[in-house]
Amino acid sequence: MHAPTSHFIHSLTALSAILTKAEAHAEAKKIKPEVLPQLRLIADMFPLWRQIAIVTDHAKGASARLAGLEVPSFPDTETTIADLQARIAKTIDFLKTIPDSAYEGAEARTITVRAGSRELTFPALQYLHSYAVPNFYFHMSTAYNILRANGVEVGKVDFLGG
């Protein structure tokens, strides 16, 4: 199996750069550091901080599960952009510890995850392609859209990491 970590690292790096622009926007507009993480796209969706926590959870969770490793647990305590940046950096640091060789034979694994009150079981490739990656990008897109809808000047090139 091809190691998914490089794709996650690339996108997490792009997300970090987007947050850097968000932080500069907040400073320029004199927005308190704790305001941006609480923004939502709409009332019944998670706030920015939770969207980013889920992005990092899917990156570290998918990478660890597919490599047959324990998934590290990060507490959800982020209240500022700086806190979210630290969470992204910690996730990238973890991903960099997984050698590509850890994914050899991963396609034969069965992956079980909790989604709310449900327990879901997938063959490894189905888990990666139909659950982990789509969820990663859904929540990354939502985080991007929250910031964009609130005036942060970011575009597709930023999302793609260009």
Automatic annotation (TrEMBL):
InterPro entries: DinB/YfiT-like, DUF1993. Pfam families: DUF1993 (PF09351). This is DUF1993 domain-containing protein.
